[in-house]
Sequence to fold (133 residues):
Amino acid sequence: MKIESCAKDIKASDEKIFRMLSDCRSIQKMLPPQVKNWKADEDRCEFEIEGIAKANVNIAEKMEFSYIAYQVDNDKNMPLSFTFNIEKHGDLCDLTMKIDMNVPVFLQPMVRTPLQKVTDTALERIKSNVEQE
Fold:
C-alpha cells in the first residue's frame, strides 16, 4: 500500500531541509506525544508508540539535498519504508513524503486514513521546525 502527501512549500534551503531529515535524531520532532523509549543517533532510531507498535528506523539511502529513504522494522511484522523528496524552486522548496507499507489487503481500509494523517502531520511539523530554525 502506498500513501503520498501533497507537496508542501517550505521557506528554507534544500540543504537545511536535507540536513534536518538526514539526522534520525530529528525524527522525534515529527512523532506524536505518545512516543516513549526514544533512542537515536544520526543514522538510526528506535521508539515505541504506546499501544501501537515498537519501531526501528534506519536511513536506507540519501541523495544530497534531494532525497532521503528510511526503512522501518516493527514488532507487528509489517515492514514499511518512507521517503522524502526535496525540490528547490527559487527561495522555496517543495517537500513530499511517501509511505510504502506491506499491509494485507483486508487491513488496508483501516490503516489508509491514519497513514495519510501521519504524512500530513509530519510535513506540517517539519515545515514548522525548519522555518523556525
User: Anything to note?
Assistant: Strands lie at 2-4, 8-10, 35-40, 44-49, 53-63, 67-74, 80-89, 92-101.
